[in-house]
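Justification of computing resources. Each target in the renewal requires a structure prediction run like the one illustrated here; the chain below, 163 residues long, is used simply to show the kind of job we budget for.
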Amino acid sequence: MGLFSFITDAGSKLGGQIFDVTHATEDAAPSSVTPEQIDNARAQSITDNIAESEVLVQDLVVTVSGPSATLAGKVNTQACSEKLTLIAGNQFGIGNVDCQLEVANPEPESIIYTVKSGDTLGKIAKAEYGNASKYMIIFEANQPMLQDPDKIYVGQNLRIPAL
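Resulting C-alpha cells:
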C-alpha cells in the first residue's frame, strides 16, 4: 500500500504503559526512558490493538522508529490492510505508517479521510457519496476501530470505501 501520514498528537495514548515497559519490578526507581523503550512500547501497543481488532493477519511484524511505524505480514483483503494501517496510524505519536502488508486478494484502495472539526459520518458520507444516509457504510468499514457512529475525533483517519 505504501506510506501514509497521520497526525501524531491524535489517537490513543500509551499513558502508564511507558512506565510499565521501563520498570519491570515494583521496587524499581524512576529513571529516564530511552527512545528505544518508547518505540518498543508503541510497537507493542499497536500489536495489542491489532490483536484486539480481530482483523486476521499472518506473520505480523510491527516496528516503530520515532513517529514512524512499519507493518509487515500477510492479509486476505485490501480492507484488512487498510484497517491495520489505520489502527497503527491512529496511535498517539505515530506520524506515518509504511504499510508493507501483502494482500492475497487485491481490490481497489479506499480513500483515507482525516476527520476535521465539525465532521460527522453523515457529513463525510454526503461529501464522499452525495448521500448523508450512507454514513453506515463508513461506520461499518471502520469497525472495530469505531464503536459508535457518533464518536469520531478530529485528526482521526477513516476508511472511505468505494461504492
